[in-house]
Amino acid sequence: MSDSARATGYSAWRLIAEELRADITEGRLHAGDRLPTENALAERFGVNRHTARQAIASLAAEGIVESRRGSGTFVTGGSVHIHRIGMRTRLSTSLGDRHSAAGRVLESATEPAPADVAARLGIAPGAPAVRVEALRTVDGEPLALGTRWFDAARLPDIAAALRRTSSVTAALRASGIDDYVRASTVVAARHATTSEAALLGLGPGAIVLVTEALDTLVDGTPLQHQITRFAAQRVRLDIEHPDPAGA
Amino acid sequence: MSDSARATGYSAWRLIAEELRADITEGRLHAGDRLPTENALAERFGVNRHTARQAIASLAAEGIVESRRGSGTFVTGGSVHIHRIGMRTRLSTSLGDRHSAAGRVLESATEPAPADVAARLGIAPGAPAVRVEALRTVDGEPLALGTRWFDAARLPDIAAALRRTSSVTAALRASGIDDYVRASTVVAARHATTSEAALLGLGPGAIVLVTEALDTLVDGTPLQHQITRFAAQRVRLDIEHPDPAGA
Lengths: 247, 247
Description:
- Chains A, B: Residues 10-78 form the HTH gntR-type domain.
- Two copies of one chain form a homodimer.
- With 247 residues, chain A is of the alpha+beta class.
- Chain A has nine helices and ten strands.
- In chain A, the strands form three sheets. In chain A, strands 4-5-6-9-8-7 form a six-stranded antiparallel beta sheet, with helices on both faces. A two-stranded antiparallel ribbon of chain A has the order 1-2.
C-alpha cells in the first residue's frame, strides 16, 4: 500500500480490500481461487486479524468474494453479462432472448415531461410523457434498472403494452412501430443510490454503469429516451463498431 | 433513507452521503448550488452534526462538493469531459486537440506478451510486445490512465515515438501507418485501485470507467490493444452510432 494513500487517512481495511480487488480485477486472482487466510493477510499487510476480516467482509458485501463454511473465502464466479450497444441491438438480443426485454415494470405514469426529457423527445416541455420504470433480471439476478420516456401523444398505450409483453420490441410493434434505431448513447459510472442498491441487490459502495440513450425511427423521429443503471459488477458493455470494409 | 438500507448496518453518514449524491446526480442539486448546512442535514436525517459533517467530508473527498471558507459547501462545477468512442475517433479529437494524444508516457517496456494480449494482437504468446503506460491530463487535471500494447516485431520504435510526440496518430505515422480503425470496445466500471487513485488524483471510493479496445488496420490486422481507466467523475463516454440513412 502506498504512502500517499496511507497519508489520506484512508482506513487500513479499505486499502487492503482495494489491493485484493486489484488482484482480482487485474487477473492475479481468478474466479474460484481461494483468498489468503485472515492470518496471512494480517501478516502481509502488517495489520491485526480484525482489520483483515473487515477487508474480506467488505469484498463479500460487494459480491466479489464469498465465504464457504469451513473451507475459506473464494473469488466468486461473478457471472458477467455482456450487453451489446449498437445501432439495432436490443438488450434481450445481446442476452440471447427473442425480444428486446424491458423486464418487469415496477411503475408507470403519464406526467408532464421534464425540460431535458422533452428536448430529447422533441416535444414541448410539460407536454404529457409516459414514464416506465422497469427491473431487468437474468437468471433471477437483477441486472439493470431502466427509466424509459415516450411521447404520450404518439404512444398513449405503451405502458400497458410493456406490462403485457415485457418486451420493448413487442410493445412498439403493438403500437404500429416495426423498426427503430439507436441514435445516441452516453455512458457514465457512479455509486449506486440507496434505492438503486436495494432494487439491484447490491452491497454498500456498489457501482452502477449508467447509459443515457435515444432511440429513433429510421427517419430520425425521437421515439424513446432511456436511462439505464446496470449493476457494474455483473455487466460489461460491448460497443458495436461498423465494419470499415462496409459489410 | 430506507429501512432496508438501515438494516444492513451501513453507517449513517454513508447513507446521508448517498442521498446527497443522488440529489446531485439526479439533478435536484446543480453545480454551484449550496449544500444544506450541517445543522440542517442533522435535523433532516435525525443524526448529530458530526455525522452530517462526515457525510459532507466524504463527498468532498470524491470531489463532488467543495467547502468554501465562510460561505458553506457547494456542488462543484466538476468539469466533465466527453470522450467519443467510434470507428475513427481518437481521444484527442473528441477533446478538441489536433492529434490522438497518448498523454505523458510514464513507463514503457518491451516484454513477453501475456497470453490474452498475444491473442488480441494476433502474435504468439510470449512473443515480444511493447507496453506503454501513459497518463492523459486535460487542463492539468488527470483524466485517464492508459496501457497500450503493440507487436514489437511490427512497431519496435513505437514507445520512443510516443514519448517524442505524445500522440498515437503521430507515432504510428512515424512508423508508416497512416490509418487505423476501432474494431472493438468493451466498457466496465469498478473502484479505482490505490495506485490508480494516486495517479488520477482521486479520493477514497472513487470509480474508474475501464475501456478495453482493439484498434486494427483497415484490413483488420491487429495494431494496438489498449486498456484505459478514466476517472469516472470527470468523463462521459459518448458512443458513435452509424447513421441509418447511411450518411
